[in-house]
Amino acid sequence: MTMDTLHLPFATKRASGARFWRNLSFWGLLPSWLLMGFALILPIAIIAAVSVATRGAHGGFTWDFNLAGYSQILFNEGWTGELEFTPQYLMIIARTFLLAGATTLICLLFAVPVAYFISRQPPSQKAILVYLVTLPFWVSMILRVYAWMIILGKEGTLPRLLENLGFPPGMSFMFNDGATLTAMVYTYMPLMVLPVFASIEKLDGTLIEASHDLYGDRWVTLRRVILPLTAPGILAGAILVFVPSLGAVLEPTLMGGGKQMMMGSLIQLQFGGGRNWPFGAAIAMTLMAVVLIFLIFTALRSARKETAK
Predict the structure, then answer these.
(1) CA–CA distance, 131 with 110 (Å, rounded to integer)
(2) pTM score, two decimals?
């Protein structure tokens, strides 16, 4: 074995490293990596660091390692310094998941027939209907929520209409979970309709005709043909609705009146008037961990289905 042969692996590594740095795809993606690093990874790292910091005496925090922010989710320090279990924050977490799940389910129930109707229209009408679905995105979310406050408020449109129909005067549908749920469904409905519509539009119409030819009624066709074949769009819409619903802030604050808090409004309160940044960061990290677990579980489930095929 010669010396040139011994140095061959080192020469190969040096050549591959040179090719890597001359690779145009690396330099082309570098701005995207930097943007993701500074706009996504770095803020998450800062929040994670703050979540294990120590709360300052007058707000803010100090860089002393402390898990009190996480323990405060389940426990509170009593008069004697011992930890006492407090379910109040667990109730807020449970309410958040309940409202987010209900929002996703209601949006799905409305989105499937709407998307199916739009997909069966002529191309010119289809474009207009899709534009009408996306029209709320042209208006600020705050204005849309305030519009529902006008509709459901004590002197709003719905109470006046019910009063004219013989119901007691002075009714109000504001400042409860129902009002929060209504605003969340209205806010996130387009995020469910569009993916479901894109999935249904690709559906082969002959499969629906074949189902009817085999004496399948509309319910059977929906359950055994339309829903299974449009499952990817339904799953995408569910993720697009469920994930932002977990961090909703405007709806529980304005429509719920701050009485029925969700995790998003709780985080905002801790970084604002509560001045407990480590606790707010701990709640934010807990919420992000739950979302990541949900997304990973969904991805693994989809991968198993694809492998089974």
Answers:
(1) 17
(2) 0.82
Our count of domains for the chain comes to 1
Rounded to an integer, what distance in angstroms lies between the CA atom of residue 271 and that of residue 250? 16
134-193 residue pLDDT tens: 988 888 888 889 889 889 888 888 888 888 888 888 787 888 888 999 999 999 999 999
- Please report, rounded to a whole number, the percentage of residues in the chain having pLDDT higher than 90: 25
Per the DSSP assignment, residues forming a β-bridge with 76 are 84
**pLDDT, tens digit, 9 for 90 and up, residues 96-125:** 999 999 999 999 999 999 998 998 888 889
Domain-located, residue 119: yes
DSSP one-letter string for 166-228 = TPPSS----SSHHHHHHHHHHHHHHHHHHHHHHHHHTS-HHHHHHHHHTT--HHHHIIIIIHH
Residue 17 has pLDDT above 60, yes or no: no
**Does any domain span residue 251?**
yes
CATH number at residue 139: 1.10.3720.10
Nearest C-alpha neighbor of 132 from the set 142, 121, 143: 121
Whether 110 maps to a domain, the answer reads: yes
Examine residue 292 and state whether it is found in any structural domain, yes or no. no
8 A C-beta contact, residue 115 and residue 200 = yes
